[in-house]
Amino acid sequence: MPDQTIHRRGLMLVLSSPSGAGKTSIARALLQAEPGLAMSVSATTRAPRPGETDGVDYHFLDIPRFQAMLAENAFLEHARVFDHFYGTPKAPVEAALGTGKDVLFDIDWQGTQQLAQNARDDLVAVFILPPSLVELERRLKGRAQDSDAVVQQRMAKAADEMSHWREYDYVVVNHDLATSIRGVQAILAAERLKRDRQVGLADFVNRLRGV
Amino acid sequence: MPDQTIHRRGLMLVLSSPSGAGKTSIARALLQAEPGLAMSVSATTRAPRPGETDGVDYHFLDIPRFQAMLAENAFLEHARVFDHFYGTPKAPVEAALGTGKDVLFDIDWQGTQQLAQNARDDLVAVFILPPSLVELERRLKGRAQDSDAVVQQRMAKAADEMSHWREYDYVVVNHDLATSIRGVQAILAAERLKRDRQVGLADFVNRLRGV
Questions:
Q1: What's the angle, vertex CA A110, arms to CA A106 and CA A115, rounded to 5?
Q2: Cα A108 from chain centroid?
Q3: Spatial separation of the C-alpha atoms in residues A79 and A69, rounded to whole Å
Q4: pLDDT tens, position by position, for chain B (211 residues)?
Q5: What is d(CA B150, CA B139) in angstroms, rounded to the nearest whole number?
Q6: Chain A partners of B165 at a C-beta cutoff of 8 Å?
Q7: Which residues of B touch A189 (CB under 8 A)?
Q8: Nearest CA in chain B to A208
Q9: What is the DSSP letter of B120?
Q10: Among A103, A105, A145, B43, which is disulfide-ready with A14 (CB 3.0 to 4.6 Å)?
Q11: A134 vs B: CB within 8 A
């Protein structure tokens, strides 16, 4: 029976990648396989789209509320995209970590940099790469009716995102989806065994040593 | 098909624990399950025992040869136990790591400290703890004919070893052997995906980015 004195602080598992690398499929499989892992829910000031549920897809906030939270330093990371704000509220993440739950983030290198500034010890950052340039181009070209300009824009965005691979702890080249999922699951399992994430080990060891 | 430009530098996986924590069973299972992992073979100046094979159980060296290697700084770690020397020769470990093989070490905290001084970047240090004091005492008491003094000596040695748990990257409390084996396998799989262990990633990403 596990010793009651040891409990685990949760971790923040970040997956970043250029679009088309398979990140979404990996994230979906992880959430299904790992009951102790939950997706981070972002806040946004954009309007809900049909079918989106407040508190599930996003926390939908008005701009004054978002700005008040910004002023209170209540976000782990945030960004403005055109006229809309997006951000990760601190409080629910902190509550999850404190009870030993792990939180999954699907964010880009800019969000990851902010998380690293605000919560480096809790962060496990994984970068997913596509297996080849041919495969990446195939996926970014998407639908046949996309203009060359749109495709070029996607390629440039992917190239920019990939230039930040060195800022991540782990790199998974997604040759094969099942192997990549097992790889990220191993990262999660291993990081849970890191000495620093196990609270109460000092007391536990003292008891083993009879002191 | 995996990209030929990325290859992996091997890692040194250290398992330490007080005796009776299950380390030997975990190591044996790991070596069976992981073809890319080989046990480090120590050198020693003690005489071979019946059934021991030179180069398999130990590299059996005479004292002048061992001391010459010491003088050449040819050991990753070494120790003197009573009249005998023990040590891990650098060259075979370096050869294995260079070709992407991982090497398993069953050494105590003193050996681990020396490995950390000589090869910190290649080191993954795992400490195995017994599940409880009751269980540890049961295992250390061993055979009924052992004197109290012998048992006390074992307990003191275990307590000393356990006082060094903070010097390890990962801590596995061995409640259940199968779970502990899976845990150490996850550590190995995850550490293989660490950015720094994947040689050639920079070139690979540059090609993906078209630069």
A1: 70
A2: 9
A3: 13
A4: 455 688 999 999 999 999 889 999 999 999 999 999 999 999 999 999 999 999 999 999 999 999 999 999 999 999 999 899 999 999 999 999 999 999 999 999 999 999 999 999 999 999 999 999 888 888 888 777 778 888 888 889 999 999 999 999 999 999 999 999 999 999 999 999 999 999 999 999 999 998 8
A5: 13
A6: 195, 201, 205
A7: 182-183, 186-187, 190
A8: B133
A9: G
A10: A105
A11: no
CA A113 – CA B118 distance, rounded (Å): 32
Quote the Cα angle for B118-B156-B138, to 5°: 115
CATH superfamily name and code, B7-40+100-208: P-loop containing nucleotide triphosphate hydrolases (3.40.50.300)
Residue A178 Cα to chain centre, angstroms:
19
CATH architecture of the domain with residue range A8-203? 3-Layer(aba) Sandwich (3.40)
One-letter amino acid identity for A127? F
Chain A, residues 142-201, CB within 8 A of chain B, namely: 155, 158-159, 162-163, 165-166, 168-173, 175, 182-183, 185-187, 189-191, 193-195, 198, 201
B1 touches chain A (CB under 8 A): yes
Q: Pairing relation of β-strands A12-16 and A43-44? A: unpaired
DSSP state of A46: S
Q: What angle do CA A19, A22, A24 make, to 5 degrees?
A: 85
Longest distance between any two alpha carbons in chain B, whole Å: 72
Chain A residue closest in CA terms to B204: A132
Structure tokens at B121: 């970047």
DSSP E strand boundaries for chain A: 7-8, 12-16, 37-39, 43-44, 59-60, 75-81, 84-89, 102-106, 123-129, 170-173, 198-199
Distances (CA, A) of B179 to A65, B99, B130, B186: 46, 30, 13, 10
The pTM for the full model equals 0.94
